[in-house]
């Protein structure tokens, strides 16, 4: 009940309030969602990634093992999604939209506070979650954008140029390099980085609210619920199986499984909005998975005690 209440009070209710504000602002002022989307892609998200990587404490051993886990987990979920997509007979933009709603998950503003609650501020488990967050920031800005444009048969050279303009693919190596070389950042420069990174969560949630406010709300219940089940229930099961396969035990195993249990990422909505690819489905998948995660994440936390 403690975890249930915490997730409800510290994750779901604040997120819902911000989303509701976005809906109200759209209804009142018809905000331009494309502008909000570009701010997230080109400013707020890169600043958040840079700050978290620059300030983190990552060892090479933990980095290597966590990256291997992530690669195996991503490959397993990708294969599973290919089977689901073929069985369901999805066509066009719905293929990457459904896939993105499952393989991209909220590893930053949802998973990091959750990690620190469950593991009581443990720096080791935080470093694991930051590595997952790094990969979950990189993939939507590379593969996620490529997949959406490929489904529309857009010019691949133009798609590649678009990907290469995204700051986050440069921010990650720059942050690691500056951290490794102990390059200090002057206070007048670091202050704006803090301001911008702190604005990411609010802006991303407002963007989701604006998208929800502009929708006709033709609710595709079957597809949205399928996405939720795959993300919230199947995801942590696959994570557990990979942990067992790799022979990882103890608190690291628990942290990795927990990282797989969080709801669909806001990045799936941002991609859908930016490239006009099933934005209604993507928005509904993010919103509903966040609500349902109150129950599923609490259950995963309870079951984690059986992971030795």
From TrEMBL:
Localization annotation: Cell membrane
This protein's UniProt keywords: Cell membrane, Membrane, Transmembrane, Transmembrane helix, Transport
Residue ranges crossing the lipid bilayer per the database entry: 12-29, 67-85, 117-139, 159-177, 189-209, 229-248, 255-273, 285-304
Location (main, coarse): membrane
Pfam family, one: Mem_trans
Membrane topology label: Multi-pass membrane protein
Family in the record: Belongs to the auxin efflux carrier (TC 2.A.69) family.
Record-given protein name: AEC family transporter
